[in-house]
């Protein structure tokens, strides 16, 4: 009797500590080739309580910066911001690209290029790597 109650209590303890409803997460890798530091705002379209503000250090084509984030899967409104310092001599202004829809249902890599660079439609990359361009409307 004591032995069976000990086994039952140990099994109950294991079941209580087990994660019955695990949260599924996806890996979002952002590669910065823009020449500026970046900030990216992700807002979940289904649940407004889920949002992210991501910061990526400066990187360029010859020396890109890559950063990995873990997020909850879903459909996000993605808005990148180029963080630029004002140059009073040349007055270089990049402007802010528009937002796009990001379907983050699996691990995905996003490459963000220079601010006014246009990505050809036939050269978007492999399915898990996307190049950010203001001409794209959806990122899967």
Overview of this protein structure:
Helix content is 11%, strand content 37%. It is mostly beta strands. It has one domain (22-139): Sandwich (Immunoglobulin-like). Strands 3-2-5-6-9 form a five-stranded mixed β-sheet, with no helix packed on it. Strands 4-1-7-8 form a four-stranded mixed β-sheet, with no helix packed on it. It is elongated and about 85 Å long. The N and C termini lie far apart (58 Å). Residues 134-140 have low confidence and may be disordered.
Q: What is the gist of this entry?
A:
The protein is mainly β.
Helix and strand layout, with pairings?
Layout lengths: L1 H16 L8 E7 L5 E7 L6 E6 L8 E7 L2 E9 L17 E5 L3 E5 L16 E4 L5 E2 L1
Parallel strand pairs: 1-7, 6-9, 7-8
Antiparallel strand pairs: 1-4, 2-3, 2-5, 5-6
> Mean pLDDT, rounded to whole units?
77
CATH topology: Immunoglobulin-like
The largest sheet, given as strand count, sense and whether it forms a barrel, is:
5 strands, mixed
- What order do the helices and strands follow? HEEEEEEEEE
Q: Name the structural class.
A: mainly beta
CATH architectural group: Sandwich
State Rg. Answer: 22 Å
Cross-sheet strand order for the largest sheet? 3-2-5-6-9
Task: State the helix count.
Answer: 1
Tally of DSSP β-strands: 9
Q: What is the highest CATH level, the class?
A: Mainly Beta
Helix content: 10-25%
Portion of residues in beta strands equals 35-45%
What is the straight-line distance between the termini?
Answer: 58 Å
Quaternary organisation: single chain
Judging from the principal axes of the Cα atoms, what is the shape?
elongated
Q: Poorly predicted ranges (pLDDT <50, ≥5 residues)?
A: 134-140
